[in-house]
Amino acid sequence: MGFLGFSFFVLWVLEIVAAQPKTEPREVDAINKIIDHWKLRSKLNLSVDPCIQNATWAPDTANPRIACDCSDTVCHITHLKIYALDVSGEIPQQLFVLTELVDLNLGQNVINDSIPPEIGQLSKMEYLSLGINNLTGLVPAELGNLTKLLSLSFSSNNFQGTLPPQLGNLTSLNQLYIDSSGLSGPIPEELSNLKSLQTLWASDNRFTGKLPKFLGTFTDLKVLRLEGTSLQGPIPSSYGSLTKLEDLRIGDLTADDSSLAFLENLTSLSILSLRNCRIAGPLPEQVSTLPDLEILDLSFNKLTGPIPTSFKNFASLRYLYLGSNNLNGDLTPDVINSKLIALDVSFNSLSGNLLLHRKDLSMNVVGTSINDNNLINGKASSILHCLQGSSKCSTKFPSTSFSVNCGGTKQVSADGIQYDDDSEMLGAASLYSSANSRWSVSSSGVFISNPNGPRFMVQTDSQITNTLDSELYKTARIAPSSLRYYGLGLGSGKYQVELHFAEIQMDDSHSWKGLGRRIFDVYIQGDRVLQDFNIINEAGGSKIVLIKSFEANVTNTVMDIHFYWAGRGTCCIPFQSTFGPLVSAIHVTQVSELNGSSKGKKKHVGRILGITIGCAAGLLIISSIFYLWRTKKETERMLVLTDSPTKG
Ligand SMILES: *[C@@H]1O[C@H](CO)[C@@H](O)[C@H](O)[C@H]1NC(C)=O
Ligand SMILES: *[C@@H]1O[C@H](CO)[C@@H](O)[C@H](O)[C@H]1NC(C)=O
Ligand SMILES: *[C@@H]1O[C@H](CO)[C@@H](O)[C@H](O)[C@H]1NC(C)=O
Ligand SMILES: *[C@@H]1O[C@H](CO)[C@@H](O)[C@H](O)[C@H]1NC(C)=O
Ligand SMILES: *[C@@H]1O[C@H](CO)[C@@H](O)[C@H](O)[C@H]1NC(C)=O
Ligand SMILES: *[C@@H]1O[C@H](CO)[C@@H](O)[C@H](O)[C@H]1NC(C)=O
Ligand SMILES: *[C@@H]1O[C@H](CO)[C@@H](O)[C@H](O)[C@H]1NC(C)=O
Ligand SMILES: *[C@@H]1O[C@H](CO)[C@@H](O)[C@H](O)[C@H]1NC(C)=O
Ligand SMILES: *[C@@H]1O[C@H](CO)[C@@H](O)[C@H](O)[C@H]1NC(C)=O
């Protein structure tokens, strides 16, 4: 080989070396130990250098994924993804050898034990996801060392303790996901330094103290979720500066009242949900000028006054929830926007004639005096009689029992009880009445992140255990906000209310899919009988029957059983929008009937307080004064109860 040839050889060797530098041996050793620790060898058999060019495990889409930076004389591992592979066991110490990591995604596994403080050594990290795992212990203060972080997630875990103030050092953060993490206590003032935040999910934690004013200085914020905490109102007026907000969900505030004045300049909003926030005062007209607003949920508040006529002018509004407020006045078609597909005005002092002829609009007007032809077209008209305690709603009445196979078809149980069909598809705001007019069901709310998902019913083919009536539990109703069953035309007296549950949407397997928590409240006749109820916890697993029994009195023909989501539980395990109440069946009987006594059968029919209105459909008693009175009482009671420090 001549000089020239030799030179080419040297160049060729240099090129190979340049193109394929060796990986830092400590890192090669560490990554192999990590792979073995998490039993991933069968998915990723690294028999060669982890940083070889064009490795099959290097592209964005690979999982597990290892990618490297070879721009130096040695290669370093910079990206590690082990996502939704159900790896279990703790975080191994070898991980902290990979100090050049910029992107670590360990989301959706069942990694347990605590996050080791050595996480603070990975100071080049920009993207860190530990979301949906089984991590416990404290959130380490050392996370505050990762000052290059742009995105941090430790949502849906089982941490204890409070948010470390050191997280306030993460001043580059754009995204912070800490919902359902198990944390409690005050939100540290140091977090006011996170001025670059665009997305903050912090719902379903036991945070205490006032809703932080400093959030109003995060002027790049687009998404804020703070539902189901123990935070106190009011909503600070500083939030009026968050003009880039597109999705704002605050809920379940206690203490002081809030107003809606802060919304004036929040013109980017497309989702606004302020459920159960003690919002008082009138609905501002100018809300209707928000050009992109599609979902507006202001239910379970203390709003007063009329629905402004400007509400007809919403440019984009599709879902409007104003239920359980103190709104009054006439609701006329002039107020209803033509793009609306769901309208809930239930439990308000509203009246008026809504002769809309809009089959595309689902409505819930229970507990108002609104005359609604959409309901008259369906079976629901008779309910409006019965919900106000009319004796004329059926010749069968007064009755002493009703039974419903929620979300399913007619079933006769092993002990001979006939559970009625309840398989009608409900809309995002609707009222449905049983064929026998003994009960009705209303649902209000939309699964915001998944509006076309499960249509308020779920179903399984799996066997259900702990019962002779497996079929009864293979279907259930679910709801994103509020689901109510009303027993109608019941004689006065003491009743036993059996609520039948079996979790069929969430899993209890040793997989990330088994990490979901469904948590909701139940009210019977306005009294909260279950708070933070978790079917899987009480039944001992998924697809296991749990029956809860309560006593309740009927004095005015109606039994009101309300399943209510108070913002608690995980949002998205195993699917988007897996949260809120679930119920499989309901069986209600008068107690005196159970032990054969005729004592309770005096059958007082409730007071008829309606006013009659003639209309095309015939005589229709439509006023629900009794209901308005009770709603008010219930709203007050709810506010009182959420005020109490017993939460937690
Ligand atoms: C990994 O690859 C090596 C060489 O390609 C092979 O000998 C070994 O059996 C593989 N191990 C597994 C667990 O697949
Ligand atoms: C890697 O892929 C690129 C483009 O596909 C190709 O040019 C190159 O030769 C490949 N390198 C190796 C070592 O296979
Ligand atoms: C973590 O999980 C592993 C394997 O699943 C188990 O052996 C270990 O006991 C668990 N550790 C803790 C602290 O729960
Ligand atoms: C924080 O990061 C620095 C490097 O930037 C490192 O030297 C130090 O050990 C880290 N501290 C902790 C507590 O991990
Ligand atoms: C991080 O935050 C803590 C507490 O807020 C503070 O005392 C500390 O000086 C900060 N560290 C750095 C490196 O900024
Ligand atoms: C909205 O913006 C105007 C003009 O900048 C300002 O005067 C007003 O105070 C803002 N309103 C709110 C509620 O922040
Ligand atoms: C999570 O950890 C707890 C113990 O802390 C254990 O009981 C539970 O089974 C684990 N969950 C899964 C899905 O492995
Ligand atoms: C039902 O009424 C009885 C008698 O008036 C009363 O003692 C009981 O506390 C009431 N039960 C409920 C659940 O309100
Ligand atoms: C009927 O049974 C219930 C318990 O199931 C009991 O509390 C009640 O006193 C009984 N009533 C009569 C009249 O025996």
UniProtKB/TrEMBL annotation:
Q: GO molecular function terms here? A: ATP binding; protein serine/threonine kinase activity
Query: Where does the UniProt annotation locate this protein?
Result: Membrane
The cross-references to Pfam families, in alphabetical order and at most eight, read: LRR_1, LRR_8, Malectin
Keywords, alphabetical: ATP-binding, Glycoprotein, Leucine-rich repeat, Membrane, Nucleotide-binding, Phosphoprotein, Receptor, Repeat, Signal, Transferase, Transmembrane, Transmembrane helix
Domain named Malectin: which ranges? 401-586
Q: Look up and give the membrane topology term.
A: Single-pass type I membrane protein
Question: For this UniProt entry, what's an example GO CC term?
Answer: membrane
Gene3D superfamilies per UniProt: Galactose-binding lectin, Ribonuclease Inhibitor
Q: Is Cell membrane given among the entry's keywords?
A: no
Regions that span the bilayer? 608-629
**The UniProt record lists the keyword Metal-binding:** no
Q: Which GO terms describe its biological process?
A: defense response; response to other organism
Task: Return the EC number.
Answer: 2.7.11.1
Q: Which residues form the signal peptide?
A: 1-19
Q: What is this protein called?
A: non-specific serine/threonine protein kinase
